[in-house]
Amino acid sequence: MQALQRSRPAWLAYGALAFSVLAIAWVPMLIRWADVPGPASAFYRVFIAALVLIPWRLALRQRPAPARRPALLALAGGVCFGLDLALYNTAVLRTSAATAAFLGNNTPVFVGLGAWLLFRRRPPRSFWSGLALALSGGGLMILADAWGHSVTGDAVGDVLALVAGIFFAGYLLAAERVRADMDTLTFNALAIVGSVGTLLAICLALDMPLAGYSLRTWLALVGLGLIAQLAAYFTLVYALGHLPATITSVGLLAQLPLTAVLAALFLHEPVTTPQVAGGALVLAGVYVVNRR
User: Fold this and answer.
1) Is the dihedral of CA 279, 280, 282, 283 positive or negative?
2) What is the C-alpha to C-alpha distance for residues 99 and 17, in angstroms, rounded to an integer?
């Protein structure tokens, strides 16, 4: 019984990560169904989640206020996440869902290097081996688009998704660093403030429409806010509190083959042989990274 109790946090962490992957895999579908500019759908994604998170955190007055430095780091992580969403949502509107999903979550490279350079924590050899497999799978999918095997690829969209992955790595590193001093709810509430402020500033600067949407658009935006953001990232931050960011970031790549299948079913993007082969390599990489 004691052994089971000791192992339970690890099982919960991996279960939370699996749920997060499943929920995030639906993001490209919801973005396409919303059919509004990327920064606008990104804004409502975090704003709707904030309407739940912030009052929830404020209602728990018995919890101590976070220290200044962790609070600022959580806000900075939220800014990175806001920039990630603005770029990623725009990329999904320009390129294939599977390619955008991989490049937008191409964070293991930046997480591994960031953890090494900033925190002096060199990833284990298994991380680099698994990363090589995962990146090979994603590269195969990208090359298939470049060689004309897909009619939905777009070079600009691919670049936007790749840059988005850099900012997402910043969010993951901030979350892992702060979670030692801050509970899941407090981090999510502070980070969402940074994301909402960042995306609102972008939308206003670019004169993005934030009203006058159809019912279908509002339903898609609510799905982004409550499922893809609130539920998915609450469980992701919980996982980050118990798993290294290097493992979590590579684990998130499992959404790539799942997104490809969902895109084929709901966006009518055909699943090609290179996508199947690439997805298999990604899953193999996830297995290697998580193997003990």
Assistant:
1) positive
2) 21
Q: Across residues 124-138, what is the average pLDDT?
A: 80
Identify the H or E element spanning 91.
helix 68-94
Cβ–Cβ < 8 Å for 108, 250 = yes
Round to whole Å and give the CA distance between 227 and 223. Answer: 5
* CA count, 13 A, side-chain hemisphere, 219: 5
Indicate the DSSP class of residue 242: T
Q: Would you tell me how many other CB atoms lie within 10 Å of the CB of residue 215?
A: 7
Residue linked to tokens 């004309």: 148
Per-residue pLDDT, 151: 61
Instruction: Please tell me what DSSP assigns to residue 270.
Output: P
Cβ–Cβ under 8 Å, residues 153 and 146: yes
Tally of domains in the chain: 1
Q: Which residue has the tokens 């997060």?
A: 20
Query: Is residue 1 pLDDT above 50, yes or no?
Result: no
* Rounded (10°) angle between helices 232-240 and 155-178: 50
- Residue 36: domain span: 2-290
Q: Where are the alpha helices (DSSP H) in 182-214?
A: 184-205
Question: Token digits for 120?
Answer: 């002096």
The per-residue pLDDT of the chain, averaged, comes to: 83
pTM to 2 decimal places: 0.82
- Cα angle 266, 230, 179; round to 5: 130
CB distance 263 to 28 below 8 Å: yes
| Neighbour count for residue 156 (Cβ, 10 Å) | 11
Give per-residue pLDDT as tens, 152-187.
Answer: 667 788 789 888 988 988 888 888 788 777 887 888
